[in-house]
Design a protein that fits this description.
It is built from twelve helices and no strands. With 255 residues, the chain is mainly α.
């Protein structure tokens, strides 16, 4: 289900995702105002919000234009068809993936260091928790949890372009930190860790389940989430075989 944080990134963004200006501007009539960059950003934010709230297939380009307060033609002018606009929303958040990969690069991956696994999980978790705490980030988190959990042509393109490269980097790191298991074992661990993170980001029931003591998506719970994932990874991976003891030296007397 939570096939997702199997998110980016060879840190370079796809060329199509980096595109922020239209390839060819339509001719303007005399006296018509030129398109403004703030309108381009407004379209992107409106699309992110509506896709998160209603789902990709339930949103029209006209609704996005109305939410952004721009003429309908400007949506296609800046972003092209709806599936390209959907892709652009995830490109907009590429910096979060880059932060995660930069944090992973900074980890000294020594399997003998008991803190290595914790630091890998922190690199995976903390940039996303920080993103979720922003006003705009809540829509993106909702979008990730809602849309990428379902198999569709649009979500598969996003997963392959942004999330799969990042996922492979983290799986490799987990395998290095837990060498007693196979890389396939590490991939299962990544999938389970992703599920825990996504659920924390998008599920609001913790408020009522805790009798309104806990706050949904509380950033203060990040450390607890890290400990939970680290403990689960250690428990789920195969137990390393016990080291064979060398037989004690013989002390028989020479005759």
């Amino acid at each position: 289900m939570y096939n997702i944080f199997e998110q980016p990134f060879n840190t370079a963004m796809p060329a199509a995702a980096r595109k922020t200006t239209p390839a060819s501007a339509p001719a303007r009539r005399k006296g018509e105002a030129a398109p403004r960059p703030d309108r381009q950003q407004a379209i992107l934010l409106a699309a992110e919000k509506l896709f998160a709230q209603r789902g990709y297939h339930a949103v029209t380009i006209r609704q996005i234009a109305e939410e952004a307060g721009v003429p309908l033609a400007l949506v296609a002018y800046y972003y092209g068809p709806k599936n390209d606009l959907f892709h652009a929303v995830f490109a907009h958040w590429g910096h979060t993936i880059e932060e995660r990969l930069a944090a992973l690069e900074a980890v000294m991956q020594d399997p003998q260091d008991p803190q290595t696994l914790t630091r890998i999980v922190e690199a995976f978790i903390y940039p996303v928790i920080h993103m979720r705490s922003s006003d705009e980030g809540q829509y993106y988190a909702q979008l990730v949890g809602r849309e990428l959990a379902y198999n569709s042509e649009e979500s598969d393109r996003v997963l392959r372009d942004f999330f799969d490269p990042m996922a492979h980097r983290f799986i490799d790191a987990l395998h290095h930190a837990l060498p007693q298991g196979s890389r396939a074992d590490a991939a299962w661990g990544y999938q389970f860790a992703l599920g825990a993170l996504l659920h924390h980001l998008v599920d609001d029931r913790i408020g009522r389940l805790s009798n309104h003591v806990n706050t949904p998506s509380d950033p203060a719970a990040a450390e607890r989430l890290v400990r939970f994932i680290v403990g689960g990874l250690r428990a789920a991976l195969p137990v390393p075989p016990p080291k064979k003891r060398s037989p004690p030296p013989s002390h028989r007397r020479q005759t």
